[in-house]
Amino acid sequence: MKRITLAIIFLIPIFFIGCSHNKSQQNTNQTKKQTVQEEKKGPQTIKLHAVNAQEVVLTKDNDNIKIKGIEGKVILLDFFATWCPPCKAEIPHLVNLQKKYKDKLVIISVLLEGDKPDNEIKSFIKYHGINYIVTNDKNNFKLSNMLGGVKNIPYMILYDKNGNLITHYLGAIPEEMINSDIQKAVK
Known about the structure:
Elements: H1 2-17, E1 19-20, H2 22-30, H3 32-41, E2 44-49, E3 55-61, E4 64-67, E5 74-80, H4 85-100, E6 105-111, H5 118-128, E7 133-135, H6 139-146, E8 152-153, E9 155-159, E10 165-170, H7 175-186
Parallel strand pairs: 5-6, 6-7
Antiparallel strand pairs: 1-8, 2-3, 3-4, 5-9, 9-10
């Protein structure tokens, strides 16, 4: 009984804190100077390949973003990895939120794994019943750096329907909390 209690005490913080993503950290450290220089240049645009063959063209201007073809909707960027338990645990919540706000919300999951074949990601999407956009692109790491560097996952960033930064989340977050913030962002 004591072993089970100790195991639970040890695992719960890991679940809520999230997974460390070393490759992302290395990319962040290596391109920190480049990112600072890019921020001074003004708006930055990046293209990402989504697994469903859709192209996601995102433009960042200060803390705000715009995604070509997704104007007037709340945007939730979700940085994740397929091997990360808290990332997998949040999927049903994101699926529910996408269903609930289908005409007002666009969830874009940004895979932070290098060289993962699309067919593996498609199997992952099907297995988990994912109903939102998942990007699998080498530029995913560039986007992470462009947005300040993602050091731990899951990491989500919420933008209102005008592309203004609302908040960010680190680790597994209760669906009710995200829902509450989406309701504010929709208005």
